[in-house]
Amino acid sequence: MTGRGFSPAPDGRDVMRYVRVEMREVAELVLEGRAPAGDHLRGPDGGVRAGVLLTLLDTVGGLCGGLAALPDGWVMSTNLAARTVTRAHTGPLRVGATVARRGRSNVVTSVEIRDDGAGGALVMHGVLTSAILLPENGPPHWERPLHLPAPEPTGPAPGVEEWIGLRRVDGRTVEIDVTDGLRNPWGVLHGGVVATLVDAAAAHGAGGTTTDVVLHFLAPNRTGPVRAHTRVVGERSDGRVVRVELRDEGHGGRVTAVAVATVTPG
Amino acid sequence: MTAAYPPERHLLRDLRLAFEHGDDGTSRARFPVVPEVCGASGSVGIGAVAVLVDVIGGGLAALAARPDWIATADLTLHLTRAVRDGHVEARASVLRAGRTTVVIEVGLRDAREQEVGVATMSFSVLPRRDSNLDVGGMRASGWTTMADARSRLHAPLLDELGLTVVDPHAGVVEVPMLDWSRNSMGAMQGGAVGAVAAAAAEVACNARAGGALVATDLQLTYLAFGKVGPIRTRADVTACDDGRAVAQVELVDAGGESRRTAVARVVATRPLP
User: Fold this and answer.
1) What range defines the domain where residue B88 resides?
2) Which of A27, A121, B87, B244 has the smallest number of Cβ neighbours within 10 A?
């Protein structure tokens, strides 16, 4: 399947710069990312926000999946599912990604995030599934084993909501614009930013801290604003289960993602 | 459906599943609540619901992918309310039907029309083979069922699957490959795989927590068909605190060179309200 053009730099580097993740291929098709648990990445409960953890999962897992897709093509995230294990984080964080399955049309990567400042405690585990697409200008070429240093920060980093430009529309709805700094190498809203928007919407709509997320990327967010609407499905002893639907309002209001998240009170 | 599938005694018949495929791109399925589909808490277990979701999601995805065929990539299921009587109904709709993937969302309701959970599934689209089921006739109007007058569960669902607990602390359970629980491709039915993963997680979480937790939330990623058996699990409880335990589960086909067939991340909570 052919996709649009792909440009590894500078698009997508802004997201890497924001989360300050460095990525290294430590064995064939085994990726390791390292990122500080900076204050700007933390939520009201003091832990690194689930959206940021999912951004790390999408970024490192996506690169791992992309390398597995070569030379047939490169990858675009189609869904991710992850669970938070611990919400108190010291940092730095270590992200490990391995290929669980490489099929003809997709790649499944398993990702674990650990807290090296807390003896390697498990922070989050999940799975990222990506479709293999052939960019119009061909798949990217990388020197192997791959090493991508974290891009240098350009100044003080804002908090997560300020970074994505979050606006609260009503008690159940938030939205953001699709700015160039939030795009991925395919030129559409970065999967990690989509996950961060889902996290922010779920926490806003249900009141609390997002822990677990299942996210299906249905269509690219090209135009914006991208609006996230939440609905509480029910409540359990571990929190509220929330459905989140994203629409690209500037693209005919088409549904671009659907997620189910668990939000713990407090 | 081909004449050979499902056989006379089969999971899909004995759950007494009934289906209705609408002309609007949606499908519904339900099963009656009987003691054999309920867990220790007295409400419907996540395993039976996983089978329901897999059947209706897979059927609708197969329709959406025509003339091609599908392979299930993942299934997620979140239960939010206990169901103790009546039926559980799944309402499936297509979120995306693309050239390479189909994504289905399933809403779950009880007989009182209360929302009891939500599920999603995604599928890879594959070229059709001669051996694939013909789903063209599934658009019949009205409710249909594969059950006949003799169809019923004779024991709790996990017992019917043949599940035995080998090591509760490590979440090791084993399940034989039975014709009763195979899908049309000869592998363990996808919902049954979910039932096994959830059972393994629940056993391990309760071994750690001292009991009283119920699997209510399942993220299941299919990696390969389990066709030989027994299917063996291992569960690692990664978090366990008041009201919530999390387990990672790996399923392998022990008779098939221990090939990894699925991985799951399961949450167990206190029994649902």
Assistant:
1) 11-145+157-269
2) A27
What is the C-alpha separation between B57 and A64, in angstroms, rounded? 29
Provide the CATH number for the domain around residue B178.
2.40.160.210
| Structural domain includes residue B5 | no
Interface residues from chain B to A (CB-CB < 8 Å): 73-74, 76, 78-81, 95-96, 99-101, 103, 105, 115-118, 120, 122, 124-125, 216-217, 219, 221, 223-224, 238-239, 243-244, 246, 248, 260, 263, 265, 267, 269-270, 272-273
Task: Say which range, A138-142, A251-255, B219-223, B248-252, has the weakest mean pLDDT.
Answer: A138-142
Q: Which residue of A has its CA nearest to B272?
A: A236
Q: Which chain B residue is nearest to residue A110, measuring alpha carbons?
A: B263
**For chain B, what percent of residues have pLDDT higher than 70?**
95
Q: Do A131 and B101 touch (CB under 8 A)?
A: yes
Helix (H) or strand (E) holding A248: strand A239-248
What are the chain A neighbours of B116 within 8 Å (beta carbons)? Answer: 234
Give domain status of residue B150, yes or no: no
Name the minimum distance, in Å, from the CA of A218 to any CA of chain B. 6
> What total number of domains does chain B contain?
1
Contact A233 B95 (CB under 8 A): no
pLDDT above 90 (res B21): no
Model confidence, pTM: 0.95
- Residue A129 Rama label (left phi>0; alpha psi -120 to 50; beta): beta
Q: Cα separation of B76 and A212, whole Å?
A: 12
Q: Check B219 against A78: CB less than 8 A apart.
A: no
All domains of chain A, ordered by start, with CATH? 2-152+159-264 (2.40.160.210)
Residue type, B138: M
What are the pLDDT digits (tens) for B62-78?
A: 999 988 989 999 999 99
Tell me whether residue B133 is in a domain. yes
